User: Fold Enoyl reductase (ER) domain-containing protein from Agaricus bisporus var. burnettii.
Amino acid sequence: MRAFVVRELAHPSGINLSHDVPEPTAGKDQVLVDVYSAGLNFFDTLQSQGKHQSKPPLPFILGSEFAGKIAQNSPIPEGCPYRPGNRVFGGTQGSFADRIAVNWNELLPLPDNVTLEEGAGLFVTWPTSYQALVGRAGLKSGDWVLVTAAAGGVGIAAVQIAKALGARVIAAAGSDSKLEIAKRVGGADYGVNYSKPGWQKAVLELTNKKGVDIIYDAVGLINDSLKCIAWNGRALVIGFAGGAIEKIPSNIILLKNISIVGLHLGAYKRNEPECIPLVWQKIFDLFTSGKARPVTYDRIFTLENLSEGLGAIERRETWGKAVVRLRKDEVNEKAKL
Assistant:
């Protein structure tokens, strides 16, 4: 079996694909899934170097998101609703492999109108963006929302969710080409380039000097963005793709009457597990209605050039969700012909 095995901590560019990895065996309450596509994330590069908070013991298989089908020879545990051939998606350590063993209750059925490649990038980005905007920031129709890194995986999901729920969305990115993607593909109303000094003035002009009600920041631009936040605004801390963890002056929080709100999606499983299925149902409703659609980068990577994909993310060349294709969905391909 092919798998991207980390035997010694190193940058992905220094790790070779393994071709002789033993196939997994299903444990209690587990099923076997043939992986068709896997999502690429910036934190994969950190994890392979031991720089991420999640540190699996060596050796381990890299990757955390996938979409695929229940294997034909998979055991079906008692109570499991899935059958061989069913399309599923989820998140587990080791998704950069031809086959994985995963607890069946950690899988979700892939909606009929979502492809396996689109499904590979759902598990982290969409619930992160939905729960942040709706559950944590209390998004309302008519709100002004500023999304940084708006063409990225979580960013473009946030843009679509905010638009679908009636917000006015300002995409923020570091290049005009990324802004064009956020508007053309994501549906953002406006765009501002935060590589240009004084970009916050453009936001204030767009909002008639009011500022934005919600800041969705996955980069580490909270301090800069607070210059254009509205009274009673909510600033969402989603991540630190820029590399630096900010220190926020508390007097600004007081003077502007604002809230700084964090989101740790992974901790919901432990602290609010009942919230997770509700969030997914709302996301599936958006897909069914056609108001939102998963966005994948226009270059599909393979296991053989996986490190190129992670490098492209690291250099901020990608947009939407970058994915790896492990095998083609021959059934669906024939159905299209």
